[in-house]
Design goal:
This protein is mainly alpha-helical. It is built from 10 helices and no strands.
């Protein structure tokens, strides 16, 4: 049991502390940029597109609904892959990212004028910076070999079933499928930013993973 908890679940190994700190800061940073993307309303990642739609309909916070959804997806991940994709990074992503986004949105509501998020050119500038930051944060956390969030683990599992199909392609199909589900749930036509996320998130994850393996000697999941 001890070995299971240390090696299989927590993913303790070479560079564990460095990877753990990286995952925590990546999750907080991703939540920071996500809060900006939600506020400017020019497009978010497909998962957030669904979660914002559902959380608004249910009248609960974004972070709470994201946690509930991830708990549901965790069942699928555990049944199909056991703990292969589960680790400290999974828990950090499930809990910290959504609530970090809620926290920063609360901060913006009390410190920044609404015009920053609703009027151009500030709206476009914030969107561009937040888009790049969010994609980079996701790519970093997913390549630390500390486990990934259930939403991110699902396309990895499906990609393992579809032998020979690159992960980038599977991830793009998964994200576009989630956009379709979000539309069906009443989210309307996704903004341009959501399509950009679906197109580029998968490729950037792969690029950042190769850079991290070379620079920090991390093995990576994607």
């Amino acid at each position: 049991m001890k070995e299971f908890l240390i090696h299989d679940l927590l993913k303790v190994g070479p560079g564990f502390f460095k990877r753990a700190v990286t995952v925590v800061f990546a999750a907080i940073g991703t939540g920071f940029f996500l809060s900006l993307l939600i506020n400017v309303n020019l497009g978010t990642d497909p998962c957030t597109f669904i979660n914002v739609t559902v959380s608004n309909r249910l009248g609960i916070s974004f972070g709470t609904w994201q946690l509930l959804l991830n708990i549901g997806l965790m069942i699928f991940v555990l049944i199909t892959s056991r703990v292969r994709y589960i680790g400290l990074g999974t828990l950090v992503n499930m809990v910290l990212l959504g609530y970090a986004a809620d926290f920063f949105r609360w901060v913006w509501s009390r410190t920044l004028p609404e015009a920053v998020f609703t009027q151009f050119p500030s709206r476009a500038i914030v969107f561009a910076i937040a888009l790049l930051g969010f994609i980079a944060g996701c790519a970093v956390y997913m390549n630390c070999v500390m486990g990934v969030g259930p939403y991110d683990a699902a396309p990895m599992i499906i990609g393992g079933w579809l032998k020979g199909l690159p992960f980038t392609v599977v991830r793009m199909c998964w994200d576009f499928g989630m956009l379709g589900i979000g539309m069906a749930l009443g989210g309307g036509v996704p903004p341009l930013g959501s399509f950009l996320m679906a197109l580029f998130l998968g490729p950037v994850i792969g690029i950042v993973g190769r850079w991290m393996r070379k620079t920090f000697h991390f093995e990576f999941a994607a």
